[in-house]
Design a protein that fits this description.
The protein is mostly helical. Helix content is about 60%, strand content about 0%. The longest helix is centred in the middle third of the chain and has 24 residues. The protein is globular.
Length: about 120
């Protein structure tokens, strides 16, 4: 992704989020993973000509049915998990996200593959 020429969008921030996500996952910082995945899905909609990731998940026609289903899963599951940890105030007993709860590699890979396809210069 770093090698994509920056014609319309600068991918530097997205690349850094992904670097930090990889580090957080390797370091078992699963709260950070949830937050960073949320950051990715909030960051990329303009690449698809849309305003929100909900629109990407439900309305983006360029990726086909499999893409749409993967994005709907990413939207619904990852956002709810991140929101539950971002917006809940301290409680008497807490739960910390597990590796399984933040495992969205396949869906993120599908998303990033489409980001690269859209941003890659056309021959």
């Amino acid at each position: 992704m770093k090698d994509i020429q920056k014609e319309k969008f600068d991918t530097a921030k997205l690349c850094q989020i992904l670097v930090e996500l990889n580090r957080a996952y390797a370091g078992q910082s699963f709260l950070s993973c949830a937050f960073l995945i949320r950051s990715v899905i909030d960051h990329v909609p303009p690449i698809f000509g849309l305003n929100s990731f909900t629109e990407v998940a439900n309305n983006y026609a360029g990726g086909g049915r499999s893409f749409r289903e993967a994005m709907q899963h990413l939207e619904n599951a990852s956002r709810k998990i991140a929101d539950s940890f971002l917006h809940l105030q301290i409680r008497a007993a807490e739960s910390i996200p597990t590796k399984t709860q933040v495992e969205f590699r396949a869906d993120l890979d599908v998303l990033l593959g489409e980001v690269i396809r859209v941003l890659r210069p056309k021959p």
